[in-house]
Design brief:
CATH architecture: Roll
Radius of gyration: 19 Å
Largest sheet: 4 strands, antiparallel
Structural class: mainly beta
Number of strands: 7
Helix content: under 10%
Strand content: 15-25%
Mean pLDDT: 75
Order of helices and strands: EEEEEEEH
Low-confidence stretches: 97-119, 122-127
CATH topology: SH3 type barrels
Distance between the termini: 19 Å
Length: about 140
Amino acid sequence: MHLDARRPGVILPSSLLGEGQVRLDYSYGFSPPIPDFKIDELGISATLSFNRQPQHTFVPWSAVFLIADYDGNGSVWAEDIPQDLLDRSLPNPDDNDTDGTDSSDGASDHLDTPAPVAAPAPAKKSRPSHLKLVK
C-alpha cells in the first residue's frame, strides 16, 4: 500500500510522517502473524516492525493512493496522489527548447492539465497476496 504520511490521522514512526510516499506491506500470511491487523471503514491498523521494533500504525483511507499485490494487481486513486509526486512527473518545458527560443504563443496548454502518472510499481516477490476485503 502506498500512502501520503503527511495526511491527518496517519500514525507511523515519526521518521516517516513527513514523507509524501510511504509503502507499507500487510499480509494475513506474515510469519509471525500480525495479531491486531484490522481493516475497516476508517482505514488499516496494525502493529508493524520498523528496524525490528514493533510500532502501532494506523492509516486512514484518505491517506491511501495506491494498493497493489506483489503481482502488480491493484488500484490507484489518482485524485489522492500527492501534488508533489505529480509535479515530479510533469515534463519540463525547457527540456524541449533546444535553440533557446520560445516557440509558444503564450498559451500554457500542457501546464494546466497534469500529465498522467504511472503508479509506482510494487516490488516483485514470489509469494501470493493474502489481502482480503471483509465486509
